[in-house]
Amino acid sequence: MVSRVIPVDPFDLVIFGGTGDLARRKILPGLYRRHQDGQMPDDARIIGAARGEMDAEGYRVFVENAVREFVPKKKCDPKDLKGFLARLSFVQLDATGTQGWSDLKAVVRQDVVQAFYFSVGPSLFGAIAERLHTHGIAGPEARIVVEKPFGHDQASAQALNDTLAQHFAEHQIYRIDHYLGKETVQNLMALRFGNMLFEPLWNAQYVDHIQITVAETVGVEGRGSYYDRSGAMRDMVQNHLMQLLCLTAMEPPSKFEPNAVRDEKLKIIRALDPVATDDIVRGQYRGSNTVASYLEDAETDASTTESFVAMKVHISNWRWNGTPFYLRTGKRMRGRMSEIVVRFKEPPHSIFEEDTGQSANELSIRLQPNEGMDLKVTIKEPGLGGMRLIDVPLDMTFADALGEEAADAPDAYERLIMDVIRGNQTLFMRGDEVEAAWAWTDPIIAGWEDRGDRPKPYDPFSTGPEEALMLLHKDGRRWREIRE
Ligand code: NAP
Question: Which atom, in ligand 1's list, is nearest to the CA of 23?
């Protein structure tokens, strides 16, 4: 395979919360892979920071264990690991206190790219941003990376934006939505704007409807108390599904550059209609002989938090007038699947007799598993017996089509962290985008609260509540199957 890795500039990356779950499972293993690929220059350094007592040697052991646990065995090369660990150091500090900040100042260089990853709870963002300034650690071009959740509603997101804006300009703030770092999500843009084939058909005249599904088989076990304060609407729809919706629906930006792309996404969010009560179904999973119920996982006797939501959404603009977008996400579903399906209209006039089996084209873009896309086309069924039509998929599974290169594609976090170092914000959310997404979400949640809405129970490993199927049935449509 020809390596297309372009090394980044020398950098100091400080990971606040460098001993936390996200750092251990995603950030540090991802950085190891970038080191292994040769993307980091010799003087790139990574500094973990947290309150726990630890020295640099202890941190290297922690990181080595994380890499061994979360990077496939065949990629854990002792020489690469040694080189990677040599980049690491650790500073013990308290985000809300004074301890450790002068140590950090002594370590962070001013003449390289500075990136500060806030892998801590959002309540600490303000304290860290402030101390980076008061201690003179962050230079004028320093970048900060903030994790989800970005606010709990529009007011809290605004407050968070205001707090960060006191110390950093918008071009320095990288709000992560790791869905945007997925290979297929970027392929969605390549597909739409790099081909002549689809764009002329990508509108209400030719598209019957669009479905976006993000289904998980896991429940909320382990993070039940956090999740119970959030729910599927805040945890998934407001951010991940919203981003997928925007990239699917937006107008072509004039250039593939950060503000051009984000301007177009923002226009979509602002063009979303309020959602009618009848157009949303909420659900909460039951338990079974083998798995706990939502209430057991969330360790509560009663909760009206949804672990599933399905909805019909309209975009009020010229391109999409009359074409519904159906969104669906849930936990403890039949399969793990993230997919965007564009269902085209049937040909306006059929020259074939009835019952020949003709149906509409469908383009599906799979984010996981088996990243790839397929286009359902109608052909003649081979053989004798007259003109009978069948649907066949033109399938492009990236791993089949691109082989090793696809299998080796960087994980979303790897790509996004390297984008931070390069200073490219295209795949990060802008402050106004996040606030606009909350402005659309808030009234939906407030409506549930006002009405005392209770989610519908659904069986674990199913497709969600019956009512979610009806949401499409009543429009004469069907959800794409969730595969096991
Ligand atoms: P976590 O496992 O609880 O880790 C928190 C980290 O922050 C630890 O290293 C902790 O170390 C440090 N910390 C806590 N209080 C601190 C303080 N006052 N000063 C300095 N360091 C402090 O949390 P996480 O799961 O890694 O999540 C981190 C952030 O990422 C959160 O905002 C979360 O919502 C977001 N996120 C996580 C995931 C995930 O899969 N885990 C996914 C998406 C987003 P000490 O206690 O030793 O200080």
Answer: 26
Show which residues are catalytic: 240
At 382, list the tokens: 């081979």
Q: Any idea what the Cα angle at residue 273 is, between residues 316 and 347, rounded to 5°?
A: 50
Q: How far apart are CA 385 and CA 220, in angstroms?
A: 53
Q: Ligand 1: residues whose CB is within 6 Å?
A: 16-23, 50-52, 93-96, 119-122, 124, 147-149
All CATH 3.40.50.720 domain ranges in the chain, comma separated: 11-147
User: For 11-147, CATH number?
Assistant: 3.40.50.720
* Fold exhibited by the domain 180-410+430-473: Dihydrodipicolinate Reductase; domain 2 (3.30.360)
User: pTM value?
Assistant: 0.94
Distance of CA 441 from the midpoint of ligand 1 (Å): 26
pLDDT above 70 (res 404): no
pLDDT of residue 378 exceeding 90: no
For ligand 1, atom 37, the nearest C-alpha belongs to: 22
Ligand 1 atom nearest the C-alpha of 121 is 32
241 Cα–ligand 1 center, Å: 24
Q: What is the DSSP letter of 473?
A: H
Neighbours of 74 (CB within 10 A): 6
Name the CA radius of gyration of the chain, rounded: 24
Q: Is the pLDDT of residue 396 over 80?
A: no
Q: Give pLDDT, residue 406.
A: 61
pLDDT of residue 138: 97
Which residue has the CA at smallest separation from atom 39 of ligand 1? Answer: 22
User: Residue 95 CA: which ligand 1 atom is closest?
Assistant: 19
Reported as a pLDDT band with limits 50, 70 and 90, residue 407 is low
| pLDDT: which is higher, 205 or 372 | 205
